[in-house]
Fold this sequence. Notes:
The structure holds 2 protein chains of 2 kinds. Chain A is of the alpha/beta class. Chain A is about 35% helix and about 25% strand. Chain A has a 6-stranded mixed β-sheet with strand order 6-7-8-3-9-10, sandwiched between helices. In chain A, strand 4 (about 70-75) and strand 5 (about 80) form a beta hairpin. In chain A, helix 10 packs across helix 11. Chain A is elongated and about 75 Å long. Chain A starts with 7 loop residues before the first helix and ends with a helix. Chain B is an all-alpha fold. Chain B has one domain. Chain B is globular and about 60 Å long. Classes of the chains: A alpha/beta, B mainly alpha.
Amino acid sequence: MTSVSSNPEAIADSAVVALRGVHKHYGALHAVDGVDLDIREGEIFGLIGHNGAGKSTLFKMMLGLTPVTRGDILVAGTRVDGRNFRAVRRSIGYLPENVVLYDNLDGLETLNFFARLKGAPLAQCAPLLERVGLSHAGQRPVREYSKGMRQRLGFAQALLGSPRVLFLDEPTNGLDPHAIRDFYKTLRELQGEGVTVIITSHILSELQERVDRLAILSAGQVQAVGSVQALRERTHVPLVFEIDLADNAGPAAVEALAAAIGIQAEATATGLRFQCAREQKMAVLAALTPLGDRVHDLRLQEPSLEDMFFGLSN
Amino acid sequence: MEFTPVFAVAAKEFRDRIRNRWVLAVALVFTVFSLVIAYFGSAQQGQVGFRSIEITIASLVSLVIYLIPLIALLLGFDAVVGERERGSLDLLLALPITRGELLLGKYLGLAMALTLSTLAGFGLVAVVLWRHMGGGALLHYGGFMASSVLLGLAFLSLAVLLSVFARDRTRASGLAITVWFFFVLVFDLLLLGLLVTTGEYFPGDTFSWLLMLNPADVFRILNIFSLDDVRTLYGLASVVPTTLGSPLVMGGVMLIWIVLPLILAKWRFKP
């Protein structure tokens, strides 16, 4: 994170979305409890948390849908609910979780309606339908759409007016794997055009490969921010080794590991399996080297985002 | 205030009501009722046919005073709470539109639908009356149509207000029925009871002015006082001072009934 500045206007240069000491209290409940975040221009930023961790509240405050109790939020340099709210809102796109559109309108009418509200050129609507793969369904009423099609139409809606920042709340809900892949491909294209994307998802493994940085939110506070790699290094979630050994090598390997780093390895059908801390990784390899070609294979499992997430937010 | 988003919302609301045939259905109901009443309205006097504009309007007023408030309340009660409950409100409010503009757009769109169905529904009888009774009758009937539109707009405004107040659609529909019950059935009875029990302590015109607190009564006064013969049909007429008989004053009161609930709704419309 960059340093905290007391002057809100100074933040605007470094971050496209900046949160400073943001609180949201509902009576005694502190839904968001002192959040500082800088989301940089052109990055894909993930927001992760359990239900009730404060993700949705944070999103709503960033969009100006609900007022902050305390703190500052700047989007593209200005307050999203301030005097320039129209300009700010034209420069953002929002896809709510389980987007609800109007059943009686068809796909193209839906986009036309939102384009008018957003002040976006109506000529964008048909190409956007094409971009999300719905051009064949543009004349069909939304009531006949599947959940995935609605989600894609909602995404097209968020892209109206060529926004600088996209807020996507659980955007891949209801999409099949094929559509999810297309969706992230589109996100990468948008990123190439300089668009900043803020995305929440409960499918953590899906986010892990696709965001530049992420924040883990728990009990209304940010537990960790950084790239997946940086978070892995910072956490103490152990690495998992699996080694395949020649038939007679088991006891020697167990002894070598116990002697080198005090690890208790368990036997598997083909060899051994054990956990070690990240900083012991090289020591493990050194202990195994004397076994030479009696080690047939070695697999190393990095902690997944799920492991880190549950390690950090509990 | 910017008008582009207001018109976008209004156009959608209006088109929705055209498409789901709401406007057509209400217009048909009004057409059938107004034709039947205009034709059989003087049956009590032992006649049928398009004969008396006074009796036609008097009969229509007593029907419309029940029907239009109900239709307007049903049209508008879920304007905001419906979007909120379905989950589409957040998306709308994240767009470059203020809450006031959204509210105004909703109101204008619904108001256009209600006005169109009222004018279309009562329009056929206007043509018939004109053919049978000439321009003078048409003028009075035109006044009735205009006041019917105002009555609808006033109750639509109340409906939008309660759609902002209510927490969910169920409560909103309950509130709508309560509002209808109060203004259309209970209010006059309460006023009458008050007049009988405490009337002697108040100066003469007080109770007449209290009628202004009910748009349905304003509508009745607007129509009764436009026609001398109708005035005599109603006993109530004798208690109302002549200043209240002025269509301009009553029209002004009706406008207040249209604007005030909308202002309240805007003030109350929070996240």
